Amino acid sequence: MEENVAISMPRIGDKAPAFKAVTTQGEINFPDDYMGGWVILFSHPADFTPVCTSEFMTFASMEAKFAEAGCKLVGLSVDGLYSHIAWLRTIKDKINYKGMKDVEVKFPLIEDITMEVAKKYGMIQPGESNTKAVRAVFVIDPKGIIRTIIYYPLSLGRNFDELLRVVIALKTADAFSVATPADWRPGDDVIVPTAGSCGVAKERMEGKQEGVTCHDWFFCTKKIDKATVLNTVLKTGKA
Fold first, then answer.
1. Annotated catalytic residue within 52, 71, 214, 220
2. What domain count does the chain have?
3. 2 phi, psi to nearest 5 deg
4. CATH code: domain of residue 223
5. Is 220 an annotated catalytic residue?
6. Are residues 154 and 213 in the same domain?
7. Going by DSSP bridges, is the β-strand pair 212-216/219-222 parallel, antiparallel, or unpaired?
8. β-sheet bridge partners, residue 27
């Protein structure tokens, strides 16, 4: 009979667990080296595997878009540094997938053969595998706080458009003190927080707050145009 193994699971709102590690781009001190900007820390099960290869090619091809959103990328697996380097070289030299070829992965890929970092972040989940990290994603804000956590099983490749959407939505929520509804994209209506007093709620329901539409006291929206959102949250914008 298998014993239950306690897994360390950081939570949304927690400070990102700190560590120092060797990567394909040199040593890093995480999250201190990334303070002041957004960062995605993500794990993959193993080098030289097909799903992971498709993911790294996609992330590398979209790195400029994440950079534009003020977000850096850091990868991890429990393989060693020389395996990482050989795998990334193979991706660049040999793999042509969905129009992506000659793809150079420039963001750091952490060596974690001791599984120290993977265990700190709950990436090793025995029900899935004792020796491979699941496909975990941690979106961490400029203060080093975990804002989003997504776990995928070994067999399921991630949706990278969604990961970029998450970063932009979080930055929009922070910048405008709003929430974003289901399937939100820049330019869609946003959710206005519930009124803090009966008087404000009444004004909203009576249409006295300019730009705010209330369907009921708890569900009010407003428009923030796409250009305003992008100018605020993207590095190419004015803010």
1. 52
2. 2
3. -75, 140
4. 3.30.1020.10
5. no
6. no
7. antiparallel
8. 22
Q: Are 125 and 45 in contact (CB under 8 A)?
A: no
Kindly state the tokens that stand for 123.
């990436």
Same domain, 115 and 204: no
Rounded to an integer, the average pLDDT of 59-74 is 97
Pairing relationship of beta strands 38-43 and 71-77 according to DSSP bridges: parallel
* 43 CB-near residues (< 8 Å, 6+ apart): 75, 76, 77, 118, 121, 123, 133, 134, 135, 136
Q: In what order do the strands lie in the sheet with 219-222?
A: 190-192, 219-222, 212-216
Which 8-state DSSP code applies to residue 3? P
How many angstroms separate the CA atoms of 164 and 63, rounded? Answer: 10
The last residue of one of the domains, among 97, 131, 158, is 158
pTM score, whole prediction: 0.90
**186 DSSP assignment:** T
The token pair at 210 is: 């300019």
Place of tokens 């708890």: 218
The DSSP string of 117-148 is HHHHTT---TTT-SSS--EEEEEE-TTSBEEE
Query: What are 206's two structure tokens?
Result: 């009576």
DSSP 8-state code for residue 34: G
Residues 141 and 24 in one domain: yes
Is 164 part of a structural domain of the chain? no
pLDDT for the residue numbered 126: 80
Residues 123-172 pLDDT 10s? 988 888 877 888 999 999 999 999 999 999 889 999 999 999 999 999 99
Separation of CA 106 from chain center: 17
